[in-house]
Design a protein that fits this description.
Number of strands: 10
Radius of gyration: 29 Å
Structural class: alpha+beta
Number of helices: 5
CATH architecture of the largest domain: Beta Barrel
Helix content: 25-40%
CATH class of the largest domain: Mainly Beta
Length: 215
Amino acid sequence: MSHAAKLGLLSGFVILAASLVAVRHLKEQPEMSGGRPNSAEPESSPSRARAGERREPLVKPIATPKIVVHKAKRQLRLYSGDRALRTYPAGLGFQPVGDKQREGDGRTPEGTFYICNKNRDSKYYLSLGLSYPNTEDAARGLREGLITQEQHDRIVGAIERREQPPWDTPLGGEIFIHGNGAKRDWTWGCVALEDEDIRELFEAVPLGTPVVIHP
């Protein structure tokens, strides 16, 4: 073999070796999506935090359970005493700002209530009925001429007995915490959760559990 042929063959080996090194380097790089490795999800992302929360099941029965809804934050929190156990995203009525005034206004009520009804056959997956209207709503309705004295007294009597108040007055009723999705404000005044969240909440709380709804 001539000297020139030997040099050409050596150059070919050098180029081939460099190419193999480059290919190996490329294979070791993370796949990129949008300028960031698609496998590098931030530790603080909502999906990662939510998955971590789900790893610990609720210990039942819950001592002194309480539900608190923060309308402005679109959140429902489940408490045991003063300790928060869960925070769920929540959807509201299609007119979310302001306290409920009457039937059909699309507002989610504000105030202090309790769970007066549990429905496993709800068309919205599962539902927890709230004791709306309460005594404050009844007093306002009577003052504003929306309900009669007889309707007012029926509402107040049911609340005093910790029963389901009348849902057939002009103040409205049938306000539930239920499933079918929390990504938008779409209900007629209820609080909507994701199905997996209402399932967990439904099994965790008994009738009579206090519910506080903040603006």
